Every structure is written in structure tokens, then in C-alpha cells.
Fold this sequence. Notes:
Strand order of the largest sheet: 3-4-5-6-7-8-9-10
Order of helices and strands: HHEEEHEHEHEHEHHEHEHEH
Bound molecules: ligand IDC
Strand content: 15-25%
Number of helices: 11
Shape: globular
Structural class: alpha/beta
Oligomer: single chain
Distance between the termini: 41 Å
Amino acid sequence: MHFLKKISIFLLAAFLFLTMPAFRLQPFQPMQQTTAAAKTPLERYGRLNVSGSSLVDSSGNPVQLKGISTHGLSWYPQYVNKKAFQTLRDQWGIEVIRLAMYTAEYNGYCTGSAKNRNELKALIDKAVQYCDQLGLYVIIDWHILSDSNPNIYKKQAASFFKSMAKKYAGHKNVLYEICNEPNGDTTWNQVKSYAQTMIRTIRRQDPHAIIITGTPTWCQDADIAAASPLKGSNLMYAFHFYASTHTDDYRKKLQSAIDSGLPVFVSEFGICEASGSGTINKAEASRWIRLLDKHQVSYVAWNLSNKDEASALLKSSCTKTSGWKRSDLSETGTWIYDMLRKRRL
Ligand code: IDC
């Protein structure tokens, strides 16, 4: 009798273990297709707008976009392919891809050759077409960095955004990020004056698109922007963090911007140090994500590459350019992948 009881407890436990999906190890399976039911992010949300401090869908409901940023397009053009974007959409559950086009580093748009410029424009065009086909949102990012003040290449930026906005005016899925990370002694007033020109330039071609403006000190000064925001509609402000470097004090800055009603978009973040490498801090990363989720702030993780650095999502030994398995992912990649998937399961 005693033995039978033990056996039945064992069988019951085994039954529960095998049948409860939460206990099962889920290797790289497609995302649950139930709610997605073949609806692409673009079909779900339609044209985006900014309402108060929120990004909203075509019916006015708040939307929190989640996505991945490329590394510099000139460095890693191979990841701009339809299968890669589809893997990210279907396996990772992302809704937006950010195209980081450096302006000054490594064949950057403003410092490279005319050939580089044409290649970059062609790559952006390919990426936008894939996003159109897959119903993904796409951010065209003017990635200033060592050129710390966006006014240095203001003319080139205006002509770039004019041609982009003209080309993509009919595309509901295209967002513009007009300057990645102002830094050095660049002030908010200087960024503002640059932003006003870009906003005017884009609006002449496209009255609706979401425009994201960088904020000083590598996009940490959203609180300063909140004290003197730009005029206009569908404008958002970038806030960036790297969880090993930026902790409570930086969360306070973000919280203060949110409390002031500023529409914030985390267009770049990492779970390692601000150098893009070094230690990974998962506890701090979770704190950040909890804060973003609480306020439905959109976020985009840096970076889709196999570079030998902690922020790269792929292992440096992985040469695949799409269809990655969980075992192909770096420590950052695994954390981001699991985090994105858990939210959807
Ligand atoms: C880093 C890349 C690195 C590259 C470097 C160029 O990860 O491979 O060599 O840029 O200077 C940012 C920037 C982003 C940085 C990233 C990590 O927007 O371009 O990428 N970072 O340093 N802001 C904070 C961190």
C-alpha cells in the first residue's frame, strides 16, 4: 500500500512535469502564433502617433515597441537580409529594427567616400523594403558619435533626411532618429536648433512620421530636454543606458523626464558597460526593463553582430546571418532573447 502510494505520487509528478508547458525546456521554437495569428506588427498597430507622453497605435492605444539595433551598417552589412529580419520577428518577437548609420566612424556617411554613401543608401533601401514586406517598424538612425555635435554635419543631415522622407513618405512603418548621441560639451539648445531644422525638413515631405531626437550626454539628458521640449507633433526623445554603467541615478533622470510628460524612446541600450563591452549586469538590466515596461517605454537593444564585444548579440564564433539558434547567441543575446520571448509566452 505504502509502495503504491509512492508510485502514484511519482506518476502524478511525472505527469504534471510532462504536461505543464512552463516546466518544459523550450529550445528554439517559433513564438506562439496564437495572438500574433499571422498579424504583423504593422497590421497590429498601423500608423503610429504620439499622444501626450505615449506612443500610440492608429486607434489611440499605447504601444510599446521592442526591437534590435544593427551595429554600424558599414561594418556589418551582411545582417541586412530578409531572413535575419524574419528570424528576429518570428523567433525573437521584435517589432522594430533600428538601422544604425554612423556618420563619422568607419566609412561613415559624412566621412567615407561617395561610393560608401551610395552603398549605405542602398542598404537602407533594402532594409526598408524587408521591413515593409515583414510588417516591421524601422528606425533610420543618423548615428553621430565621435562627431559629438550634430551641427557639425547639419547640411549633410538635412539633405539626407530630405531624400529619406521623400522616398518613404508613404510608408507608415518608417521612424527617423535624427542624431544618435550628442556628447562632449554639446548643449540641449544646440541640439534643439539642429532638431528644428531636421523636423522642418522631414515635415515638408512627411507630415506624420515619428521623429526621435537625441539628447545631450549620450542621450542621458532627457530630463533637461523635458524642461524645454521642441514644438510640433509626433516628436519623441531618445534616452540610452548601459546597465553595468548606468544605474539608479540614471533611472532617476529617466523617471523625471517621464514624470514631466516627455515622450521617451529608448532607441539603444545594452546590458554591459557603456564601452559596449566589459561586465554584464543582469540584475540592473532587469531593473531597467521593469521601469520601461511600467511606463510602456519602447526599447531597442544594441547590437546585431558577432563582434567580439559583450554588447554583440551573437557569439563571435557564429557566422550565420539569420536563423540563429539559442546556442548561437552571446550572453547578452541570450538574455535579450529570453527577455523578449518571456514577455510573449
Ligand atoms: C560601439 C560599438 C563598437 C564600435 C564603437 C565605435 O559597440 O563596436 O567600435 O561603437 O565607436 C553607444 C553608441 C554606440 C556604441 C555603444 C557601445 O551609440 O555607437 O557602439 N554605445 O560603446 N552609446 C553608448 C554605448
